[in-house]
């Protein structure tokens, strides 16, 4: 049996879990680089029976899965991985497993981005490192309005932190009710009021056909020119071209982004260089405890599959 671990950017997969239950029965290969071209992905994965994928780093759509006749099992972190074509996997007889996890890392990352953008921490840090001193005037959050777009397990915790900072917390999503908003410590408002009044707009929605492009040019135009847009969910929820245009024209106060349309973000992408953007490389869930859970659950799932499929390599 051959097992591939994909997109282990930091080279930590084998360190953060005991892989011996798998290694005793299968050959494990770890890939620390990322392949974007589907043909390259197919060529890499052709020899493997089992693949572990980290989030949506390497998509496994039908056109890839159908070209991998040897693949029998996919392990992924998280309960849902939108980058795996589940119908195609089922039709190919490929078993798919998920893992547990927590919301803590993404909640904390959201607030790291909010505070970094509000106080221009990257700019101030760069000034100090280069021998300079203070360069601007930061934004105080107390008394300002935090708009939470999506009040689920992550958004509700972001809302509670906002209240602790003394912010007026408002929220909206398609299915959110006033009662549910109140239970999470927020005040329900309609979509236009959320956009019009938020000093910080933080996005916490799953990517779907309904949410793709939800924050487009019209939504960005409604926002205050001093407002901060924070996205730690999925890049395509925001129209990236419209966002870049608004940031370049100073129609927004700034953005804090951990997710993008294309990941890794292309080297020459404008979001890498705009002064009013704090950008991080999708690390909201990249924490020690989260990774240990992800990899431990992957070992358990793959080991269980090997127990049930000994000698079943194609």
TrEMBL record:
<keyword id="KW-0520">NAD</keyword>
<dbReference type="InterPro" id="IPR050857">
    <property type="entry name" value="D-2-hydroxyacid_DH"/>
</dbReference>
<comment type="similarity">
    <text>Belongs to the D-isomer specific 2-hydroxyacid dehydrogenase family.</text>
</comment>
<dbReference type="InterPro" id="IPR036291">
    <property type="entry name" value="NAD(P)-bd_dom_sf"/>
</dbReference>
<protein>
    <submittedName>
        <fullName>D-3-phosphoglycerate dehydrogenase SerA2</fullName>
        <ecNumber>1.1.1.79</ecNumber>
    </submittedName>
</protein>
<keyword id="KW-0028">Amino-acid biosynthesis</keyword>
<dbReference type="GO" id="GO:0051287">
    <property type="term" value="F:NAD binding"/>
</dbReference>
<keyword id="KW-0560">Oxidoreductase</keyword>
<dbReference type="InterPro" id="IPR006139">
    <property type="entry name" value="D-isomer_2_OHA_DH_cat_dom"/>
</dbReference>
<dbReference type="GO" id="GO:0030267">
    <property type="term" value="F:glyoxylate reductase (NADPH) activity"/>
</dbReference>
<dbReference type="GO" id="GO:0008652">
    <property type="term" value="P:amino acid biosynthetic process"/>
</dbReference>
<dbReference type="InterPro" id="IPR006140">
    <property type="entry name" value="D-isomer_DH_NAD-bd"/>
</dbReference>
<dbReference type="InterPro" id="IPR029753">
    <property type="entry name" value="D-isomer_DH_CS"/>
</dbReference>
<dbReference type="Pfam" id="PF00389">
    <property type="entry name" value="2-Hacid_dh"/>
</dbReference>
<feature type="domain" description="D-isomer specific 2-hydroxyacid dehydrogenase NAD-binding">
    <location>
        <begin position="112"/>
        <end position="284"/>
    </location>
</feature>
<dbReference type="InterPro" id="IPR029752">
    <property type="entry name" value="D-isomer_DH_CS1"/>
</dbReference>
<feature type="domain" description="D-isomer specific 2-hydroxyacid dehydrogenase catalytic">
    <location>
        <begin position="22"/>
        <end position="309"/>
    </location>
</feature>
<dbReference type="Pfam" id="PF02826">
    <property type="entry name" value="2-Hacid_dh_C"/>
</dbReference>
